[in-house]
Amino acid sequence: MANKKLPREKVFRDPVHNYIHVQDSVILDLINSPEMQRLRRIHQLGVSSIVFQGAEHTRFTHSLGVYEIAREICDNFAANYPSRTPGDGLWDNSERLLTLCAALLHDIGHGAYSHTFEHIFHTNHEDITREIITSPDTRVNAILRGVSPEFPDQVASVIDHQYPNPQVVQMISSQIDADRMDYLLRDAYNTGTNYGLFDLTRILRVMRPYAGGIAFEPSGMHAVEDYIVSRFQMYQQVYFHPVSRGMEVVLTGVLKRAKELYEAGSVKKEFRPRLLIPFFGQDFNLDDYLQLDDGVLTTYFHYWQRYPDPILSDLADRFLNRRPLKSLPFSTGTADLLPAMRQAVADAGFDPAYYTAINNSFDLPYDQYDPTSASPKTQIEIMQLDGSLEELSTLSPLVAAITGKVSGDQRFFFPKVMLTSKDDPDWQPAYGEFQQYLAHGQIIDPRINRLL
Predict the structure, then answer these.
(1) What angle do CA 321, 323, 325 make, to 5 degrees?
(2) Which of 232-236, 279-283, 315-319 has the highest mean predicted lDDT (pLDDT)?
(3) N or C, which end of the chain is more exposed by having fewer CB within 10 Å?
(4) Number of neighbours of residue 21 by Cβ within 10 angstroms
(5) What is the pTM of this model?
(6) How far apart (Å, rounded) are the C-alpha atoms in residues 216 and 200?
């Protein structure tokens, strides 16, 4: 494989890792590619800066962070666990560059406001990541082909979990990998929260390769426990924050309404979103996708604030000026009340198709390996002194307590005005109709007047 070392190590200052070290010309070329630079214009946490004003970091900074953690792991393995004979289960450093490229490029297919955009336009960032890496039309592919003709497909196979060495795959994607470790620390730093903090240095120190993947030394088990709990807390306190989800509902409404107006043939020429039209018609190519970023969509939203359609203009204004929908959690026992609540929203003058929504946000903090699962998890192994492996939750009562336990909630979203007090001069009977279903921050059944 052709891979030149830089004449002098290049470093990037970073608030999480202090320095990100680049020694390979291939890595620096990939960082400078147009496809990677596009990630500077895509927020890592989507709309979460609406709640956590510091969360302005991007997919680009996260990608460099994942690369840096993978580089540290590779250096540790090369220094302490080098392979001496084929098949000994130790680290083959000839796979270092492949690992680092996969780490750097793992998120390159994310799009503008990625998850919401994917839901509306049925794109898949993992498929597009693969296409960016393997398409002969991208600069990324040209750089990777400079290593060897088969190198792009090898990098893509790591991200697809198809590469034959599980050590390389698990370093990039597992229940404790470079990706998760970077985004927890980076998101905690930028949101100003402490939930995602854990001892990265210790975890990297106790990682070790074996024939089946990556394991951890017993002395580092408590650092791994801390990581699991930190991830659990970040999902509950940051990623599932109801106000962020309320803004995602508004964003969904903006894109959905614009798409429907286009399909109806009623989009006025001066408001035509040229770069979005291929997605409205589900007839887009990779170049169309790569032209979009958060800024492009935001620019269209500014235009749409003045669009003659009242729903599109109002939703665009709500998104740009931070007017999220409110929400309340509901259970299976109160789900049958939601149609009546939607009707009250309609009676107040809001189209419930755009101004009400159900959002389910759930996560599995940790799970044991189940080969019968649709997407089995790679379990975390603790390597004992005799070389035997023990799955983490069998040794840790703390991890066992949350293993297999889904956390999160389902919420009903609606306009904040529905909570207007009866003393307000703008009060409407529809508000009272809606509020009869509320008590103590919960949805209740007024017929029995108790929480279900």
Answers:
(1) 155
(2) 315-319
(3) N
(4) 15
(5) 0.94
(6) 13
Q: Report the chain's terminal Cα–Cα distance, integer Å.
A: 64
Is there a contact between 440 and 451 (Cβ–Cβ < 8 Å)?
yes
Give the chain's radius of gyration (CA, Å). Answer: 25
Query: DSSP E strands: which ranges in 119-268?
Result: 207-210, 213-216
Convert the pLDDT of each residue in 229-271 to its tens digit: 999 999 999 999 999 999 999 999 999 999 999 999 887 788 8
Q: Which two tokens stand for residue 381?
A: 């192994």
In single-letter form, the type of residue at position 342 comes to R
Rounded CA separation 381/388 (Å):
9
By CB atoms closer than 10 A (0-12, 13-18, 19+), residue 117 is buried
DSSP result, 282-298: T---HHHHHT--HHHHH
pLDDT tens for 390-428 read: 999 999 999 988 888 888 889 999 999 999 999 999 999
Q: For the chain, what percent of residues have pLDDT higher than 90?
A: 83
Exposed e or buried b per residue across 260-289, where buried means at least 16 C-beta atoms within 10 angstroms of its C-beta: bbbeeeebeeebebebbebbbeeebeeeeb
